[in-house]
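Hi there, hope your week has been kind to you so far. Do you reckon you could talk me through the fold, stretch by stretch? I've dropped the whole record in just underneath, so have a look:
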Amino acid sequence: MEALDVLADFPAIPAGWAYLDTAATAQKPRPVLDAISRAYGETYATVHRGVYQRSADMTLAYEAARKRVARFIGAQPDECVFVRGATEAINLVAQCWAGKQLKAGDRILLSTLEHHSNIVPWQMIAKKVGAEIDVVPLTSDGKIDVDAMANMLTNKHKLVGLAHVSNVLGSVLEVKQAVGLAKLFGAKVLLDGCQAVPRMPVDVRKIGCDFYVFSGHKLYGPTGIGVLWGRAELLDAMPPYQGGGSMIDRVTFEKTTYAPPPGRFEAGTPHIVGVVGLHAAIDYVEGIGLERIHAHETALVAATRERLGQINSVRLFGPADAAGIVSFGVEGVHPHDVATILDEGQVAIRAGHHCAQPLMDTLGVPATARASFGVYNSLADVEALAAGVERVTRIFG
């Protein structure tokens, strides 16, 4: 498949700069920037409240974006809740579903490689209701061990929360197999799709999960906007997350009744322009084709692992078939020093624990260096990375 050549769509990436931190946040293509600019500069108004024409038009645009999100992940619009990001989405499910459904003695199943946002909310709820958390180990190459998961599951497990794609290792979960196992024991499944939706097609119905979350800014869209997808019957049974405007049916001082989902979970004035920008971002990635994006990033990962693997002092983490992400270490050099030297050569990577400290503990390191790819990257960026790492080894050698 022909490599992508869309760098010209990204005005914030100057010539000669290798941006390899897409797993943290993606750069924005011109269509997204234009949509945001138009929304603020030409068509801006509030939604759901105004009876004047521009407000009505913006409301139509806002709800059109919800329909676009639904098509993007194989869902229905009324199952798609706009939130600030995946972190808020997970907290919403933890508070409004798990907080009401779980009781003392129930169990939650997570994995070793989860982002803190898919650990801490469950710890908070577990402490509150008296539930316990179990942790699925990893295979030798850094994937969630689904066979071990099968042996760990019991009828006491009510919620399974797993990353579709690891933000550190790029390892891809066998989602249908994992969801199928959880369903055998009656557990609900939440998937963290932040690193999946920018890189591969996702159909929540085919996957069979109960909740799916992702953030807009990793999908080439704006910050401050994300999506919670939940099965309609689950959302309908959940109480509101926050109180205020827009999420109500009728308010009196004696009693308040609430709007049906998704409005029930969207208190206050929403991030209107963020929603418009997310719509444009989805149009952009689907215009390229998620299969093409996945193939492009897979080729870059393979080239990176081959090139870095030729450097004796480099340790590669994660599986060879990682999706868009390569974590590595240089012997005797802290990842922060690696990243600083790479930055001097105009190569931008992430260094640290990547909000996955339990995974770092399992890997036996305090941090890793992480290169993560997007549609705008090329083999030239891979070579710039490798040349920078070779310079690191010379400086510290």
About this structure: The first strand starts at residue 18 and ends at 19. The chain has 13 helices and 15 strands.
